[in-house]
Design goal:
By secondary structure, the protein is of the alpha/beta class. The protein contains 14 helices and 14 strands.
Amino acid sequence: MDNRNQGRRSLEDLRSLESVKALEVDPGRPFGSAEHAEILAGYTTDIYFVKSLEMLQHLGLEETRVTAEIFANRPGLLCGMDESIRLLRGRVDEAWALPDGSEFDAKEVVLRIRGSYGGFGITETPLLGLLASSSGWATRAREVKVAAGDKLAICFGARHLHPAVAPVMERASLVGGMDGCSCILAARQAGVMPVGTVPHAAILIAGDTVTIAKTYHAIMPEGESRTILVDTFKDEAEESLRVAEALGEDLDAVRLDTPSERGRVTPELVREVRARLDMSGFEWVKIFCSGGLDPARITALSEAGADGFGVGSYIASAPAIDMTMDIKEVGGEAVAKRGRIPGLSDTDRLERVL
């Protein structure tokens, strides 16, 4: 195994077509997603990078020192750089990058790396993927938080993605400015607690919203928000009053998650629930909305009196921000493919990271 990577993984790098042919995958593995060691060893790379490495080995050029730059095809909010740096550690001699959470312009360089091509060439595919997906999710999350303003915005997107990448998406939503996320692994990796209260399933099984509200309050620790769904069995305004009367000052908020079959959560519904709570003396009870929300709906619901928002599919379905890697120096000499300017790009925003 390459000494640069000892202790980091237990699999040998794929460095030839023969090594790819020899790769055997256990047909009984439970999920199709790549394991960490497989990503590090190049199992998720495009095959032509392995072929390229084999040709350079044949020519004696495997250790040619190059400088490469990565840029995006459109503006966005950067995320995935922390994982990218971990992927490159031990493979490159030097690296400069924008930190996660940075805004970037189209064509702006977000990462520059220098080292032998044989050391990092097979990482190009996963490297671009790490940055493209996470930056797309973080950019969408920022749009949501801008629409929510100083009101609570929580990411509920894990159910919309393969579980292997759902924690990455929810972590990206935190980088994008969301106030919390529901995915346990994502939250704990970020050093915070996941956010969430009561699903419809518990209410349907118990047969009564108030029963679940009382039980939740009785068994959950202090500090956990007493936010209760009110759209399972009865009219949302009626159920809000029933829950408020049962929990009194201990009730923090009611959650509106009306499905599309009944018209979804509308500004009119928010206004009615707010008015009926206020008229009954429950002014402190907040209204939390979820269910297919996007920035435009968040703005409308916020103006109607909503206090918080749970957003899932809008963030999870974000299009990736295409990333491209170009080699800009070979052996210290400026190069570039046709259409690009040879040599290093002019930027003073990059910070030394490796």
